[in-house]
Amino acid sequence: MEKLPFKSVRTRSDRPLHTIHTDTMGPITPTSFPGNNRWIVVFVDDFSIYAKVYCITNKSESGDCLEKYLRETRNLRGKNEKLCFLRSDNGTEFTGGKFSEIIDEEKATFDFAPPHTPQLNGTAERFNKTIQNKIRALMFDSGLPESMWSLAADAATYIYNRTPHKSNGFKTPLSLMNKNIKTSIEPVEDSQEYTTYRSVAEIYRDPVTFKQAMKSRESQSWQAAVDEELKSMTENNVWTLVDRPLRENIIDSRWVFKRKISPDEEKIYKARLVVRGFKDTNDYEIRETYAPVSRMTVIRSVLAIINKYDLEALQLDVKTAFLNGTLENDIYMEIPEGVKINEEYRKDYVCKLNRALYGLKVSPKRWNEKFSEVASKLGLENDINEPCLYTWRLEGKLVILVLYVDDIILASNCSVKLAEIRDNLCKEFKMKDMGEPKMYLGMEIQRDRENRQITLKQSEYIERILERFNMSDCKPQDTPMITRQAKKIESRNPEKTEEMKTPFNGPFREAIGSLLYLAGVTRPDIAYAVNLLSRRQIAPTNGDWTEVKRIFRYIRGSTNVGLTYRAEANEMEVFTDSSFGDCKDSKSTSGYIIKIFNDTVAWRSKKQTLVTRSTCGAEYYAASEVCQEIISLDKALRDMIGRTFYPVTIRCDNKSAQSCTEMEGSNRLKCFDLPVSEIQNTLDDRERTGVKVPMTEIHGDFIKQCVKEKRVKLTWVASKENLADIMTKPLPLPVHKYLKDKITNSKS
After folding, report:
1. Domain match, 110 and 71 both
2. How much of the chain exceeds pLDDT 70, in percent?
3. Which of 645, 527, 674 is nearest to 590 (CA)?
4. Recorded GO terms, molecular function (predicted)?
5. What CATH number is attached to the domain comprising 609?
6. Which residues have a Cβ under 8 Å from the Cβ of 550 and sit 6 or more positions away?
7. In what helix (H) or strand (E) does residue 651 lie, and over which residues does it extend?
8. Can you list the residues of the chain whose pLDDT is less than 70?
9. What pLDDT score was predicted for residue 174?
């Protein structure tokens, strides 16, 4: 029976997170799928009535949920709001353990309701009733099994937070919690409208063990995937059953299960058998295990060439690629789960591997050697410096193949030759022709052949990492970092400065790793910010994490930003810059942007390895570093399209550095020298042989030689037009936006 409410006597909080109401519901039967949860813990903000529900297996997990709730709501607010009061009943899940520890750490106050008076915790109790009704309605309407109530709870809370409520002036809880939410009637882009709901839509979790997969409701689909994988093993003669050898290391295996969504929105069930290669006791040299992959610079250059010359392009996916490699050593594996065999035989027999199964240390190398052998038979040539870039050219006909493990992009100006290469590859390997490239290594490729344009972006990847770090609903920012001047102003607040110095115990490295991939593939506009923060991974502070979250907020507001290739020029153009002595150890930061056909294909933001003594020295060093990338890239482009871009124009905003490259010697740059160990080796060689070996200044002589041989030429550019400026320092909004649009070829 429901108790009547007391007459209202309280005053609502005047800001978010001042007072939080919490309660639990359960035990709920049946247990939920997925997760086997039996309880729900709810948190309701007193000011905005913004709510979150967490499904848990035991009430003792309430403390973890409180910690997660505070982190998520603070990320949503964009600042570290102070928690003052937490109102709950006297349940043991609230009065001790981690829950109580968090309240103490927050220096907040418990506000317990007396026994048998749920009216005094009315906000949470009323929310429980509301969410229960929504869950029942959703379950009834969807026709889903009762065990999926946890998924309905997530959906119901999502709807609740986006529904106007009378108690807060007919505003939505989410809009009060995050003021960045639009309230006008202007349209919302389709790509962002349902982004947040994705966490609810992706309701099924992949099984982690073979037994779990076979006991799940989708066991038939998983069994079909296992059978398909084992069929591939049989077709490729991956192993041979032999008597169990004595004194031999026997490695076990495991299954990896994954659901994928095809371009046609169909669900695909994948099962892959992997061996636990870390248990392989064989000693391998680095040359036996190292397998190359294509550099992202080369992949982007291939796409720029496809667009420039309007080439036909295909994407191919090699199925069970590693199984094509053969082994040289004897490796034994236990008979895997799923193989239909008498259980008694498992004690007496093992699998002797004939092929390079996934998980072995040597598998990538063996596969790469096999593919290179097949490509060579088809007339495709590669270079020692770009072993995964294959080309064929004859009488104006051109074929380009770029390989990244088992993902292939194949392009040609001759459709007949393209089909010939594809068909021959399909005869050698089991492959899937995916047609025109649309998604490659997490990079979304949108091609408009009519307007000669290709767009590269990672909007789906951005959504995944934002969800992973609870930043999906965060407040967007216009720049990835605040300027140095703004930092100086903030540092004048001693309380805030002390708080920012507190050590951060959270997923800092994981966040940096996720952002590094984004910055290295399609987002040069965040390269400097990510590079700077990646130097603080050993002992990050709250201040460092705040800066990481700012990058998340920046990409939240620029999800659809990427690189656009328009092929508006015919040359290679390079911009280089440095920020003199900006690091704590007095080293400088180098940065460069490389464009071919006016399309950005390479960039870098990097801390210099030497301490320079002047701005001229730092700029000169930066220019010399980019020369190495220019020579490597030009050689790859020669292999692909049969032309050189020499002399390449390097645009630098320091006239002194430009002048130094044209001099035979310069006292100002004598800080560039060989490492001490190499100097001593050179002196020892002269002592033994009597022959003088010149000890050159590496960077100085290299760029001068490039200028002398007319490989490059340095020209001056105004700082405001130097695109590499974005790689060396945080910039104010107008400058950042201008350079970002120039780099990405945005027309906005």
Report:
1. yes
2. 87
3. 527
4. DNA-directed DNA polymerase activity; endonuclease activity; hydrolase activity; metal ion binding; RNA-directed DNA polymerase activity
5. 3.30.420.10
6. 477, 480, 481, 482, 529
7. strand 648-652
8. 1-10, 116-120, 179-204, 261-265, 484-497, 499, 664-680, 682-683, 685-700, 748
9. 87
Reported as a single tens digit per residue, the pLDDT across 380-435 is 999 888 999 999 998 889 999 999 999 999 999 999 999 999 999 999 999 999 99
Q: How far is CA 616 from CA 313, 551, 579, 661, in A?
A: 45, 31, 11, 11
Amino acid at 420: E
Closest CA to 296 of 633, 724, 651, 722: 633
Number of neighbours of residue 85 by Cβ within 10 angstroms: 16
Question: Buried b / exposed e across 417-444, counting CB within 10 Å, b at 16+?
Answer: bbeebbeebeebbbbeebeebeebbebb
Q: pLDDT tens digit string along 288-315?
A: 888 999 999 999 999 999 999 999 999 9
Tokens of 539: 């002992």
Element (H, E) at 23: strand 19-25
Identify whether the C-beta of residue 658 lies closer than 8 Å to the C-beta of residue 664.
no
For residue 516, the surrounding DSSP H or E stretch is helix 508-521
Sign of torsion over alpha carbons 111, 112, 117, 123:
positive
C-alpha to C-alpha distance for 557 and 551, rounded to whole angstroms: 10
Considering the domain architecture, whether residues 248 and 373 belong to the same structural domain is answered as yes
Total domains present in the chain: 4
On whether both 608 and 672 belong to a single domain, the answer is yes
Kind of pairing, strands 589-596 and 572-579?
antiparallel
Q: Return the structure tokens found at 572.
A: 């290679």
Please give the Cα distance from 411 to 399 (Å, whole number). Answer: 6
